Amino acid sequence: MKKNGLYKGTLQNIILKLLVKEVKMYGYQMTQRAKELTQGELEMTEGALYPILHKLENDGIIYSSIETVNGRDRKYYFLTEKGKKQQVQQEAEMKSYLFNLKTIFEI
After folding, report:
1. Which of 32, 51, 83, 101 could form a disulfide with 79 if both were Cys (CB 3.0 to 4.6 A apart)?
2. What is the pLDDT of residue 54?
């Protein structure tokens, strides 16, 4: 993370949102896409990303598939049906949370 830990509690939501938009992604691709979308503000480290990916996979929220690209194995992650439902629910909760924060900080 860059600057502070504000993003830390939202990494799971960010990962699920990236996967719903992109359909399949590998870990490094997720870190780069998040960095790109936030103009460099969010720098996910492997140490933060992979434990969440493993937990999501163990919980049946995502699944992975290894594909060979240019002679190298690459592990892609996908949302399961359970994961798609969870992503919708978590996004609604996040939007409500952000709305409430905005209300508080505009005082």
Report:
1. 83
2. 97
Average pLDDT of adjacent 10-residue blocks, the chain of 107 residues: 65 96 95 93 90 97 96 96 96 94 90
pLDDT at residue 89, as a whole number: 96
Record the tokens describing residue 50, joined without a space: 């992979």
Going by DSSP bridges, is the β-strand pair 25-26/72-79 parallel, antiparallel, or unpaired? antiparallel
Amino acid at 92: A
Reading phi first (left if > 0) and then psi (alpha if -120 to 50, else beta), residue 53 is in alpha
Instruction: Please state the domain extents for the chain.
Output: 8-105
Number of Cβ within a 10 Å radius of residue 34 = 21
Q: Rounded distance, CA 31 to CA 28, Å?
A: 5
pTM across the whole model: 0.88
CATH of domain 8-105: 1.10.10.10
